[in-house]
Design goal:
It is a single chain. By secondary structure, the protein is α+β, with helices and mostly antiparallel strands. It has two domains: 3-76; 127-257, Immunoglobulin-like (Sandwich), CATH 2.60.40.2550. It is built from three helices and nine strands; from the N terminus they run H-H-H-E-E-E-E-E-E-E-E-E. The chain has a five-stranded mixed sheet, with no helix packed on it. The two termini are 105 Å apart. Residues 116-120 and 259-270 have low confidence and may be disordered.
C-alpha cells in the first residue's frame, strides 16, 4: 500500500469512528433524561458532550489528513519515481520465397459426339408377342402388382421358400405375385429373359374367374429355350402394352450337369389363383 492509499484508508476509518461516537453521545443523552437524580443526569450529559467533541475531532482529522496531511508526509518521505520499462525491439525474420515452377495445364479434348450407344432400360413388348394379342389392350391405369417372388415349388397360393439364387438342376420356375384393380379381358403378358434373350413367355386375356384383385397369381416357365443355364434371369409383367412389374433371380451351377431339353418347347399359360 502506498502513502496516498494509506491516507485515504485512515480518513475512512476516522469517519466511521466519528459516526459511532456521535451515535454513542445521542444514546447517552437519551438515557440521561430518564434519570431522576440531577447529579447523574449532569454526569451523563457531560459524557455525551465529550463524545460529541471526539466525533467532531475525528471528522476534522478525516478532512485535514488528505488535504493537508498528505503533502506534509510527502515532504518527509518524497515519492520514489517508478522506472519505466524500455521496450526491446524483437526482429522478426523475413521469409524468402523460393520460386516454384508452374506446369502449364494440359488441354483434354472432349469429343463432341460419343460413340457409346445409349441403352433403353424401359421394358417393352416384342412385336412377335404383340401379334398374339386377342384381348383388350387398354388396362386400368391403377392396376397393381406386388414384387415377384421366385421358387421352384408352388403350393397353389404362394411360392414355397422364395429366394433369388437357385442352383441347377431346375425343372420348373414359378414367379408369384398378388394383384389388384385388374380388368377382365385385358391382355396380360409375362416375359422370361436369360441374359437378355427371351426364353419363355405366356400371354392371354385376364380371366373373369381370377377376379380384379387377389393373391396367388403366378407365372411359370418349365421348358425355356436352351434349357436352364447359369446366369441372370428377368421376368417382366405387362397389362396390355403397359409394363407393371419386373423381377430378377440368378441360377448357379455347372452347365455340364444339365441336359438339354428334347423336342420343341411349349409354353402353356398358368392362371393365377384368385382370393376366395
Amino acid at each position: 500500500m502506498d502513502i496516498h492509499a494509506g491516507i485515504i484508508a485512515a480518513s475512512l476509518l476516522m469517519i466511521v469512528a466519528a459516526v459511532f461516537a456521535a451515535r454513542g453521545a445521542i444514546r447517552v443523552m437519551q438515557s440521561a433524561r430518564k434519570l431522576s437524580f440531577y447529579s447523574l443526569r449532569r454526569m451523563r450529559n457531560a459524557n455525551a458532550w465529550r463524545l460529541f467533541f471526539i466525533a467532531l475531532v475525528l471528522f476534522g482529522c478525516a478532512i485535514w489528513l488528505p488535504v493537508f496531511g498528505e503533502p506534509m508526509i510527502y515532504g518527509y518521505f518524497p515519492p520514489t519515481p517508478t522506472p519505466s520499462l524500455t521496450p526491446t525491439i524483437t526482429l522478426t525474420p523475413t521469409i524468402t520465397l523460393t520460386p516454384t515452377l508452374t506446369v502449364p495445364p494440359t488441354v483434354t479434348l472432349t469429343p463432341a459426339v460419343s460413340n457409346t450407344p445409349t441403352l433403353t432400360l424401359t421394358p417393352f413388348l416384342p412385336i412377335a408377342i404383340e401379334a398374339l394379342f386377342n384381348g383388350v389392350v387398354t388396362p386400368n391405369p391403377d392396376a397393381l402388382f406386388t414384387p415377384l417372388q421366385f421358387s421352384t415349388e408352388f403350393d397353389g397360393v404362394n411360392p414355397i421358400n422364395p429366394k433369388t439364387v437357385f442352383e441347377l438342376p431346375i425343372q420348373t420356375m414359378y414367379g408369384g405375385f398378388d394383384y389388384n384393380n385388374l380388368i377382365p379381358g385385358v391382355q396380360w403378358t409375362a416375359l422370361w429373359y436369360h441374359n437378355g434373350q427371351l426364353i419363355c413367355y405366356e400371354t392371354e386375356p385376364w380371366r373373369a374367374e381370377w377376379g380384379t384383385g387377389g393373391i396367388g397369381g403366378r407365372t411359370e416357365c418349365a421348358n425355356p429355350i436352351g434349357g436352364w443355364k447359369p446366369g441372370e434371369y428377368e421376368v417382366q409383367i405387362f397389362m396390355g402394352y403397359d409394363w407393371k412389374v419386373i423381377g430378377r433371380f440368378i441360377v448357379i451351377g455347372s452347365p455340364d450337369a444339365v441336359s438339354a431339353p428334347t423336342g420343341t418347347p411349349t409354353f402353356t399359360p398358368i392362371p393365377p389363383v384368385a382370393t376366395p
